Backbone:
C-alpha cells in the first residue's frame, strides 16, 4: 500500500522534477558517489554467510574452524542476536513472540551501554579505535559462541542472559567505534556534510 502511495504521490524525478539539466548533473554525480567498496564488502559478507550455512553439517561440522570463521566474517553474531535468540525462546522454550522479545532486553539494553563504553575507550582512555574494535568483536564472538553452545533444554538458563549481555556490549562497542572512527580514517573531502 505504501509503495502505491509513494509511486503516485511523489512527482517523477523528485526533487529535481522542474529542471532536466539539474537532474542529469545530479544523476552523474550520484553515480560517482556510489560506495563500490562498501557494496563489495556487503556482497562478500553475504557470500560468507551463504557458504557457511550451506557447508555446515554437510561437508563440515558446525563447530569446524571453517564454518565458524565464515560465520564471524559474515557478521553472524549480530544476526544471531536479533533473529535467532528470539526464535530460540519461541521454539525451544515455548514462549510467545512478545515474551521472547522481553527476554531479549538484556541484549537490547547492553547495546547502547556498550556504545558508551566504546566511545569512552576511544576518547577518555585514548585507546586506538582498532584495538577498541577488536575488543568489541571479541566480546561479540564470545557471547555468540557461548549462546550457540547452550544445551537444548526447555528451561531458560540464567547464563543465557549473561551471554546476551556480553554480545550486546560487544555489538555496542563495535558500532560506536565504527561510527566515530570515520572522521579519523576518511579524508575530510570524502565526508558529505
Residues:
Amino acid at each position: 500500500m505504501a509503495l502505491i502511495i509513494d509511486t503516485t504521490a511523489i512527482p517523477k524525478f523528485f526533487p529535481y522534477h522542474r529542471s532536466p539539466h539539474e537532474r542529469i548533473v545530479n544523476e552523474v554525480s550520484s553515480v560517482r558517489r556510489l560506495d563500490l567498496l562498501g557494496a563489495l564488502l556487503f556482497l562478500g559478507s553475504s557470500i560468507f554467510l551463504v557458504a557457511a550455512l550451506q557447508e555446515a553439517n554437510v561437508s563440515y561440522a558446525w563447530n569446524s574452524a571453517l564454518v565458524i570463521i565464515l560465520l564471524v566474517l559474515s557478521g553472524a553474531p549480530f544476526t544471531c542476536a536479533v533473529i535467532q535468540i528470539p526464535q530460540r525462546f519461541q521454539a525451544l522454550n515455548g514462549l510467545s513472540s512478545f515474551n521472547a522479545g522481553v527476554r531479549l532486553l538484556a541484549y537490547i539494553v547492553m547495546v547502547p551501554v556498550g556504545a558508551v563504553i566504546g566511545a569512552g575507550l576511544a576518547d577518555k582512555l585514548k585507546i586506538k579505535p582498532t584495538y577498541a574494535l577488536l575488543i568489541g568483536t571479541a566480546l561479540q564472538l564470545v557471547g555468540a559462541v557461548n549462546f550457540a553452545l547452550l544445551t537444548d533444554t526447555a528451561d531458560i538458563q540464567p547464563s543465557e542472559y549473561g551471554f546476551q549481555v556480553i554480545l550486546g556490549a560487544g555489538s555496542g562497542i563495535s558500532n560506536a567505534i565504527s561510527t566515530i572512527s570515520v572522521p579519523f580514517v576518511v579524508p575530510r573531502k570524502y565526508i558529505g556534510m
In short: The chain is about 70% helix and 0% strand.
